[in-house]
């Protein structure tokens, strides 16, 4: 299908979202649902990965809602390109696939959210808002699948050396709790620190380890063997 692009001139402070899916009806329906929610501005639509990358270069949306399987450049490759050319643009995968390989490939490509198409619009909005703040929203079942799969594969002990060289013992504690599926409030309670301190520690982890989001941090920690 040919690419469809529309630009909206509504409030500049709204979250700016690009929808990428090769089904016209799905894109239109999703656009209508999201536009009914406050704080979302749909800046464009794309029917495939190549168009998505081009539009991200032109419009720099806050969040891309990305399908996985599309003709030509699929969602994983498009995500990889987007995170390279526009690191401040976040990608949330919205797909019918819960296959382990698809999930892992998308997360490692830089997606900071992975939701299934039968999710509620409220869950999708939560994912978009989390992504815009640089956080991750992965369903617990999917996150558990990713980490279980990583644990079953061979560990990379050299990663542990990098972690211990770059992070303090306190920050490593935070990383371990992330890898065990704890959210910020749980980490704050367990370590008796404020949620703001937790967010600062997570920002430090992402910067020092040069990774994009907390689910990637969890994968990194599991691969290192520290959890």
Characterize the structure shown.
The longest helix has 15 residues, at 195-209. This protein folds into two domains: 15-147, Rossmann fold, CATH 3.40.50.2300; 155-224, Arc Repressor Mutant, subunit A (Orthogonal Bundle). It has 227 residues and is of the alpha/beta class. It is built from eleven helices and six strands.
Counted up, domains total 2
Q: Any guess at the CATH architecture of the largest domain?
A: 3-Layer(aba) Sandwich
**Mean pLDDT, nearest integer?**
85
- Percentage of residues in DSSP E strands: 5-15%
Q: How many strand segments?
A: 6
Overall 3D shape: globular
SS-based class: alpha/beta
CATH superfamily placement of the largest domain: Response regulator
| Low-pLDDT segments, ≥5 res | 1-12
Compressed to H and E, one letter per element, the order equals EHEHEHEHEHEHHHHHH
Q: Strand count, sense and closure of the main sheet?
A: 6 strands, parallel
Q: Indicate the CATH topology of the largest domain.
A: Rossmann fold
Helix content: 40-55%
Radius of gyration: 18 Å
Count of helices? 11
CATH class of the largest domain: Alpha Beta
Distance between the termini: 45 Å
Strand line-up across the major sheet: 2-1-3-4-5-6
């Amino acid at each position: 299908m040919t690419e469809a692009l529309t630009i909206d001139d509504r409030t500049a402070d709204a979250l700016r979202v690009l929808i990428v899916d090769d089904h016209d009806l799905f894109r239109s329906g999703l656009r209508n649902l999201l536009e009914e929610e406050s704080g979302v501005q749909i800046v464009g639509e794309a029917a495939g990965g190549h168009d998505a990358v081009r539009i991200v270069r032109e419009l720099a949306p806050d969040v891309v809602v990305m399908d996985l399987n599309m003709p030509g450049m699929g969602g994983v490759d498009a995500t990889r390109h987007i995170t390279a050319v526009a690191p401040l643009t976040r990608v949330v995968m919205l797909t019918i696939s819960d296959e382990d390989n698809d999930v892992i490939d998308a997360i490692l490509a830089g997606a900071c959210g992975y939701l299934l198409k039968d999710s509620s619009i409220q869950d999708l909005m939560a994912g978009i808002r989390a992504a815009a703040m640089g956080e991750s929203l992965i369903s617990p079942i999917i996150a558990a699948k990713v980490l279980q799969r990583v644990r079953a594969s061979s560990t990379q002990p050299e990663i542990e050396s990098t972690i211990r060289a770059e992070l303090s013992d306190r920050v490593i504690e935070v990383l371990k709790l992330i890898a065990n599926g704890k959210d910020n409030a749980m980490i704050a309670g367990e370590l008796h620190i404020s949620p703001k301190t937790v967010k600062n520690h997570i920002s430090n982890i992402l910067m020092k380890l040069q990774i994009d989001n907390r689910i990637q941090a969890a994968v990194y920690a599991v691969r290192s063997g520290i959890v």
